[in-house]
Amino acid sequence: MFSEYSFADLASIFVMQGFSGLSLFAVFVLMSLGLAIIFGQMGVINMAHGEFMILGAYVTWLTQHLFLRFMPSLFAGYFFVAIALAFLCAALLGALIERVLIRHLYHRPLDTLLATWGLSLILQQTYRSLFGPREVGVELPDWLMGSYSFGDNIEIPINGVFVMCLTAAITAMVGWLMYRSSWGIRVRAVVLNRAMAAAVGINTAQVDNRTFALGCGIAGIAGSAFTMIGSTGPTAGQQYIVDTFLVVVFGGAQSLLGTIASAFAISQSQSTLEFFLSGSMAKVIALLIVVAILMLRPQGLFARRVR
């Protein structure tokens, strides 16, 4: 597989594919952060998480058209508005779903899995009815186009750098919320002992609702980032849900550091292997490696120790 390339060629390929995988890494991190909050903190298996991502992608697409039609002079800044709207729409829908559906299924993981799977099918059909079955693409502002050149063979896309900066900012915000804010203290208290948290005056139902909404909102931001690396369709979210669960389980549920590390490892391995093999074979090999590691360490890479 490598014999036909020189050492310099292989070095350039690995660097290029590494930077190419950073965009996929950013989407994995944002998706996994939302899922880690919902699954790791609440124990809810949300099979509709990919559809919340696609909601954010469609909101970005709609925002682009609104700016092109009514505010073309402000088109250069539409993406920041789209990110905020994607988070807001996905979070509001998540809060509604938690209040109507998820709240009645806590501590019933199989029922939650089936209910959210049915929800994903409903959302897919809703998107198909509203936006049509064909995939749509987003037009990026001029300042997000192009690339930075490093040497003769290395090109770093500007939109990839922007997505990485966005991911770093969201990750830092989530880390602060979960480990430094008073709301994060309440979330961890509910996770450790729900009855005792309620006894000291914490509104556990409100914590659950806002936690689920936050996880869905971050998935909406992931949808905005996804528009930079792929086209948006009603079923596009299902292509990422398995990888996202894989990232969360591989890194260790409830571990922010584990989520980031596993997202980086899986995205980089897939991106590099796809250059030498087909996309399906790259996914198979990456999956086999992860399964082999989980057989030796089933708790994940960075499992939390709790008393």
From TrEMBL:
GO terms for biological process: amino acid transport. It is a multi-pass membrane protein. Its main location: membrane. One of its GO terms (cellular component) is plasma membrane. Keywords: Amino-acid transport, Cell membrane, Membrane, Transmembrane, Transmembrane helix, Transport. It is found in: Cell inner membrane. It comes from the Bacteria. It holds the Pfam family BPD_transp_2. The keyword Ligase does not apply. GO terms for molecular function: transmembrane transporter activity. The chain crosses the membrane at residues 20-40, 52-71, 77-97, 156-177, 212-233, 245-269, 275-296. NCBIfam families: urea_trans_UrtB. Belongs to the binding-protein-dependent transport system permease family. LivHM subfamily. This is Urea ABC transporter permease subunit UrtB.
